[in-house]
């Protein structure tokens, strides 16, 4: 199926379908020079599938992992673009997870002041979350996404088949962002997590439909789009403090959400979904340590933080909490 | 006077007035944290005038010259932004010429995916040209403006008083871009160059009025905006080949325009304006050398170049010329 993200002159289609990668050349002009950007972990089979449809293409690979979202890698890719004589009419196709989309998207946003950018997310996390919305960026030191742009892709292809080569833990990690979307906006999406079998295509589709709706109303994150940060304030802090050794992004967001689900019945439902997804339990944490990361978050205003809460399934409130209030919540614990 | 550049949600005012810098704090919120970015050549008096209106500001200086439009300087400024805890609500004010506007504008465009950017151009060239239009960029090796963005400022202040500290050659250099604008769009602007005294404020105002009109119709340079490249194809090649030692940007553009003014009477008028502005004459050049730079220009499509010609004062045509045709024109010479 095809969904259109409606952002006036920046509108673009998202194709969600098994094998949709096979018909890329029917949907866009692949006769231009095209840079395929992917990390070293992407199986050749996906690269070749795309390349076979782009006669004038070349492949730029970079090391897997968040540490590639840095100035040096950004500069290296831009120099490769120059070396390959890319013009303003040419295009970039990113094939990979969130890191690849963020990095390749920022290269596309700034090379010659912006060339066409296409995205093929290959992790569930990127499919349901980062590939929609046009946020591209690199990190500087410990500051995630501190340098970047709002730059919409010209098309996104989501092929559930590419998930087959993904370990189950990675799939569950991505499902957390879909569950998050359901919790704040769509009870029926949460229900899908309680069906006998998890229908990934349906979960992806509903999840994108909601994210698309939010982005359409607030492209530059001045208001509504903040609800997508549900679970992320404490989640990011856990990720910064303990994530590198032990946890994935989605797993940390799952932990972060628990603190702000207000309905005890809903919290129980969510905990059994977490069990089903084999998510790791919230570890013993040091409140002071987490607070130091929360204060450090560059998106935090000077004296308080916007926190998204879920009073009932499918609804949200946004509250401005002081650091003291957040510290109190952390001390009480997520199951209080 | 105040002119509004009308780009819907990205509209912004340009203030053109002696001493308009004195009332900055009436026009924008200067209570935020503000980074003032300037090169080491800007007299302290202008910095202080602005700073005195911004209680929570700090100054970032960088070395004068085009070579500061590089990755390293871009990265350094971004790290300074982080070090000063700049948030998405804070702002950058650039004070300087084209290099400063391009560099500081690109920092503003990408720090936290874009924060408010204000520009105070202090050279005539920046006042009549680069400060209007939202093109920001850095260079990579010999490729000028190859990495950047279209990012509109939130306001521009043009104070003709700041030109008093500028050497006359710099003023004349800037006047070339104003003359260019007149040649392609406005006979009365060309007339101003033949008045007994050159009225800078009037020339700046008319010139910006036209540039504003062109930018409003073609923000992202997909069509009409190309006419502003009049004189620049050969001009850039002369600048690359001989500029560093001897010529300024506007001087090279003046040379480049001569090749494509088709009316011989108009060419005579223009040559006497050049005399009045004490512009250097076109040097003996090596056609093959200039051609190698023209072929190299990243904006050139693969086999031809869009060239702007002026058949009569205030009018233009755009033609797609092959490299052979341009070589032929260079061999015939500018006065043919």
Automatic annotation (TrEMBL), chains A, B:
EC number(s) recorded for this UniProt protein: 4.2.3.4
Keyword terms: Amino-acid biosynthesis, Aromatic amino acid biosynthesis, Cobalt, Cytoplasm, Lyase, Metal-binding, NAD, Nucleotide-binding, Zinc
CDD domains: DHQS
A Gene Ontology molecular function term of the record: 3-dehydroquinate synthase activity
Pathway listed: Metabolic intermediate biosynthesis; chorismate biosynthesis; chorismate from D-erythrose 4-phosphate and phosphoenolpyruvate: step 2/7
Coiled-coil positions: none
Catalytic activity: 7-phospho-2-dehydro-3-deoxy-D-arabino-heptonate = 3-dehydroquinate + phosphate
Keyword Lyase: yes
SUPFAM superfamilies named among the record's database cross-references: Dehydroquinate synthase-like
Highest taxon in the source lineage: Bacteria
Domain 3-dehydroquinate synthase N-terminal residues, every copy: 62-172
Cofactor(s) essential for the protein: Co(2+); NAD(+)
Family affiliation: Belongs to the sugar phosphate cyclases superfamily. Dehydroquinate synthase family.
UniProt-recorded name of the protein: 3-dehydroquinate synthase
Organism listed in the record: Faecalicoccus acidiformans
Encoding gene per record: aroB
